[in-house]
Amino acid sequence: LAQKHWWFSGRARILSRMVAHFSPRPTAGPAAQTILDVGCGSGAHLNALQPLGNVVGVDLSPAAVRNANARLPGRVCAGSILDLGFAAESFAVVTCCDVLEHVDPERKALQELQRVTRKGGFILLTVPAFGALWSSHDHKMGHRRRYNPAALRIVARSVGLEVVLCGYFSFAALFPAAAMALWERLKGSAGPDRRGVPP
Known about the structure:
Elements: H1 6-22, E1 34-38, H2 44-49, E2 54-59, H3 62-71, E3 76-78, E4 91-97, H4 106-116, E5 117-126, H5 136-141, H6 149-158, H7 174-187
Parallel strand pairs: 1-2, 1-4, 2-3, 4-5
C-alpha cells in the first residue's frame, strides 16, 4: 500500500530523477554503478532505482527486510545506519530517506554513510522540514528533530561532506501539515516539543 500512496510514489520518482541527474553512469554490465538505499523499508525506492544501477538495501526492521526481499530476493539485508556492515567505499550512490531525524548521534550516522560511499560518489538525503511543523505525528514516528537547509548543511559539513544541493520538495503537503501543527498547538496535544533541538 505504501508504494501506491502519492507521497511515497512521488518521493521515489524524485529520488530516481535526482540520482539519474547527478550520476549519469552505465546502468548495466560490469561498469554499472552500485547504489545503496539505507532505511529501504518495503523496497519502494529499490524498484524506482533499479534501472539506474545495481541496487541493494538495508533496513533496521526484520519485517521490512522480509517484505523487500519478497519483491527483490537477496537485495536487502538487516542493518543500522550507525553500522551498515559494508566495506568502505562500496557504493557510488547512497540514498537515505527520512531516517536521519530518528538517529542520535546524527553525526555518527552521516559518517557511516560517508564511509561506504566511494570517492567521487554522492549521498542523497531527505528529512522532514520546518521545526514549526512539529506535531504529534513526529512524536509517534519517533522523530528527534526537523531540519531546515541551514541546519542540514551545518551537520553535513561538520563531518566533511560537501553540500552540492539543499532545498525543499513536496510543497503540496506544507499547508495541511501547518494547519495540523497549529491546531495541535492550540489544543496542547503536539507531544514533547523538539522543535528547538540543535543539529
